[in-house]
Amino acid sequence: MPTLSRFQGRNGQKAPTQIADAECTKCQNLFLSSHSLLLRLGSSISITDSLDTTDPLWGLHRSYIVAGTPFWMWMVGNTARSLKTGSQVTIKTLAASNKQVNFVEANGSIYILPNNTTDKVQKSDGTSGGTIDHPSAACPRASIGVWHNNRLYLNDLNDGGKVWFSSTFAPDTFIDQSSSATATDGGWMKVSYGDGDKVTGFGKLGSVLFIFKERSIHMHLGTSFVLTDPTAFQLIELNRGIGTKSPRSIVPTETGLMFLDSDGKVRFYYGPARQIFAEPGRPLEDLTKAIPQSGLLESAGFYYDRKYFLSFWSSAGTYNDTTFALDVRLMAPTLGWFVDQEVPSFWSEITANAWNSGLVDNGQSGTGLPFYATSHTGGTITQFLSGLTDTGGVAIPYAWRSKAYGADAPSNMKSFNEVTAASRTFSSPITLEAYADKPALSATATATHAITPLNTTYAINTWRPAVKGSVLQAGLSGSSSVGGEIVAVEWDWTPRRKEIVS
């Protein structure tokens, strides 16, 4: 009798009979919580662009330059908007519409990185009159940047192998030089310059800056531009062959960096060991490796409640339409496992929520919750994982489905004896499901049975479906506006010799 005393998440690989018993082929909107599945919280629209209610927002920023009064900035088309004054204003119209416009907050100002070689980096205080071209003539045209060790670091769209950094505490001062006798001077450095590759992303982990190229990763340490100083800059190649094309997928955790590499594999850089692990992404490789090359640039993630959330294109997509969440707490003990079938999944699929840009409010006069810019249409900023319904008051759908059993013995016909689900805090109906001979994810259940559990206590419900087949799967689905938890799912069957007619 297959029993599931522990849930280990969805495994999206193509052989549902080969995945671990505690994994599943479907785990939608259910987070792994100890030994149970917890229905995720909902979402609500926080801000809508009043001038453009249909186009996606391609850049998103929560500014804290005014103490105690954070405000939103975003990018739609070629237009930068701000809510600093309390009402929406357009603060800058760029020469070109770009999908990957980014914002960096540095030393009390906001810097808008236009992602084209025509527009200069913009310095802004969040108002239309306070948004100007970057004052330094040496400042490069840039698409990505980071405020690190009191310097503003930027890529260079006209020279992809360079990284520029401002003078210390002076993000308005860039100096065209590769060395200096003054420790606090700004300048530039060449990153593995001879490989013809370009800088594609930055990731911060403590005092270390990680510089990503499409096919390499580098560690940048130190604070002084004087090479003879004890704290002089160092640039160390961490890995050759692994990099990223997805700058918004690079997300720091407590112990490392999550990112999507240039081949579409989710990887984890574990800081204490200085190792890069592919295991966290293996259960989803069939999905993420199918992301079209043009879609890798748009993949975007954030880290919240010890979970890594990632939105990306489906194989036939044209925008971010697929979202998964990895529970990093459960992943940690598995680091270093190199046998595919031993690597648990710990991934859950999130439906009806996808984004181009996501961030977590830091809680200063805010909620400390994640927000995102919608990925396709709507012109909205959405607050995520809050409340008990999705936007518009829609109940959150959920589904779980076991691995496929019995394909190793196709000569045996099997009969389901019973399917049992234990739940708590669900007041809406749960539908138990049985599948026979159709292990594909798109399969329709052979038989279903609706149950209405008790809301305040544990409910154990057993169903005896009249289902036979050579391959069997169990599942459940439903939707709820009040949360809920699946504590256990168990099922058993009886093997029977298939009749052979000659």
Question: Topology, please?
Answer:
Elements: E1 3-4, E2 24-28, E3 30-33, E4 36-39, E5 43-48, E6 59-63, E7 71-76, E8 79-82, E9 89-93, E10 102-106, E11 109-113, E12 122-124, E13 131-133, E14 145-148, E15 151-155, E16 162-165, E17 187-190, E18 199-205, E19 208-213, E20 216-221, E21 234-240, E22 251-252, E23 256-260, E24 266-270, E25 275-277, H1 285-288, H2 293-296, E26 300-304, E27 307-312, E28 322-327, H3 328-331, E29 347-350, E30 355-360, E31 370-374, E32 380-384, E33 396-402, E34 412-424, E35 430-436, E36 447-451, E37 459-463, E38 468-469, E39 472-480, E40 485-497
Antiparallel strand pairs: 1-40, 2-33, 3-4, 4-40, 5-32, 6-7, 7-8, 8-9, 10-11, 11-12, 12-13, 14-15, 15-16, 16-17, 18-19, 19-20, 20-21, 22-23, 23-24, 24-25, 26-27, 27-28, 28-29, 30-31, 31-32, 33-39, 34-37, 34-38, 34-40, 35-36, 35-39
Question: Can you tell me about this structure?
Answer:
The protein has 502 residues and is mostly beta strands. It has 3 helices and 40 strands. The strands form 9 sheets. Strands 1, 3, 4, 34, 37, 38 and 40 form a 7-stranded antiparallel beta sheet that branches. The longest helix has 4 residues, at 285-288. The protein is elongated.
